[in-house]
Amino acid sequence: MSDATVPVNDVPPGESPLEAASDFASAPDAFQRLWTPHRMVYIQAGEPKGEHDCPFCVAPSLDDETALIVARGKHAYALLNLYPYNSGHLLICPYRHIASYDQATPEEVAEIGELTQTAMRVITEVSHCDGFNIGMNQGKVAGAGIAGHLHQHLVPRWASDANFFPIIAGTKALPRLLGDVRQEIADAWPIASTS
Predict the structure, then answer these.
(1) pLDDT tens digit string along 21-69?
(2) From 77's CA, which of 5, 30, 88, 176 has a CA 20 to 30 Å away?
(3) Which residues are annotated as a binding site?
(4) Whose CA is closest to 154, among 100, 97, 78?
(5) The pTM of the whole model exceeds 0.85
(6) Which residues does the annotation say bind substrate (predicted)?
């Protein structure tokens, strides 16, 4: 037993002893491993069973400040991610409870695109970011935290960021409060683009 292994006596019944990653048998490769135990809350809670408990269906019924919504369109809306990778991390969602991009209507697809373009312009203006990561995780197996409701991620990036994943001592450093970021983006959002 290595020094990093938890003695069997100290392990709760039904659980395996913990081992240091350095003790694992492995073949070197070019990949780093990103361990994200905080995402277990999504896995253990399970997928929302329907629209009444889906956070992306509930959000539009709340006021913008409470729901962190920065802009509303006719078919889709933009809100801040409650668990952002970087300050200004937005989600673009259709109002309809659909699971995948291929289920979206042409109007929803167009408005998701328009909201994404506007969000990029606004976030660049207010935060002076240098680029973006944009993506959709389609289905639980692809990493969607809420697989039942389509949502697109828009993550601002800066040349000086270490990248948006580092977590040190179980802590992710975000320099701005969600409410402040939401207000700044909402205030800069052109009114005509959300009608």
Answers:
(1) 555 555 555 555 555 555 554 445 555 555 568 999 999 999 999 999 9
(2) 176
(3) 81, 153
(4) 78
(5) no
(6) 81, 153
